[in-house]
Specification:
Layout (H helix, E strand, L loop, with lengths): L3 E5 L6 H10 L3 E5 L5 H7 L3 E4 L25 E3 L4
Parallel strand pairs: 1-2, 1-3, 3-4
Length: 83
């Protein structure tokens, strides 16, 4: 698949719905936890990233996070709520 989107799931109840809407546009996507490695993302070669929302507060000490270097890959990023 040339066009593919990587969804990083921060625990949103809507992650599956987000994926379904992307797939309805004939775009391949996969859902993975936010702690996937940078090497995985490079191998996956997404056309863009979606950061799903989640129930945690970004201010919480145990809030999930992703590698900041993901934002330096030059990919379009859609952050939803928590993202």
């Amino acid at each position: 698949h040339r066009d593919r989107i990587l969804i990083l799931d921060f625990g949103s109840q809507y992650t599956q719905l987000i994926a379904r809407r992307i797939r309805e546009q004939q775009v391949y996507c996969e859902i993975h936890p936010p702690h996937v490695g940078l090497d995985f993302v490079r191998r996956f070669q997404p056309a863009g990233l979606v950061l799903s929302g989640g129930p945690a507060s970004v201010l919480a000490a145990d809030a999930p996070d992703a590698d900041v270097e993901l934002l330096e890959l030059g990919l379009p990023v859609l952050g939803i709520c928590y993202g």
